[in-house]
Write a structure and sequence with these properties.
The structure is a single chain. The chain is mostly helical. The protein has one domain (about 15-100): Non-ribosomal Peptide Synthetase Peptidyl Carrier Protein, Chain A, CATH 1.10.1200.10. About 60% of the residues lie in helices and about 0% in strands. It has four helices and no strands. The radius of gyration is 21 Å and the shape is elongated. It starts with 7 loop residues before the first helix and ends in a 14-residue tail after the last helix. About 10% of the residues are buried.
Length: about 120
């Protein structure tokens, strides 16, 4: 199966899943002023020449670039390598999509119910 053989919505999802990690790697490389080649899943920010301030600025840029992503101080300490950061962003995206699907299903189910006015709204 190739991306070309997928339906449009499947293509968008497949393309997003392929591009997102590369976007993160490119963003990291640009922010730290390094070539993208050494920005692998196993690379530590220290390996890329980043100090704690560079790392803080990187997290701010990540949060700005990926709207739903918030990185707490506790999470920053747990994100040891580039792959951890990519997985964190992907998990946030998956959770956002799951919530959207649940909300869409709830909305769809609620539209089939008859509308009734609360007793206090009836004319007397």
């Amino acid at each position: 199966m190739t991306i070309a053989s997928l339906k449009w919505s499947q293509k968008a999802t497949a393309t997003r899943e392929v591009l997102a990690p590369n976007d993160v790697r490119t963003l990291i490389a640009n922010q730290l002023g390094v070539d993208v080649k050494p920005v692998t899943d196993e690379a530590h920010t220290d390996d890329l020449g980043a100090d704690w301030l560079d790392r803080l600025e990187l997290m701010i840029v990540i949060e700005d670039r990926f709207a739903d992503v918030e990185i707490t101080d506790e999470e920053v300490d747990q994100l040891e390598v580039v792959g951890d950061l990519i997985r964190h962003i992907e998990n946030v995206d998956h959770e956002r999509r799951r919530r959207s699907n649940v909300e869409a299903t709830t909305m769809r189910n609620n539209t089939n119910r008859p509308r009734t006015w609360p007793q206090s709204c009836h004319w007397k």
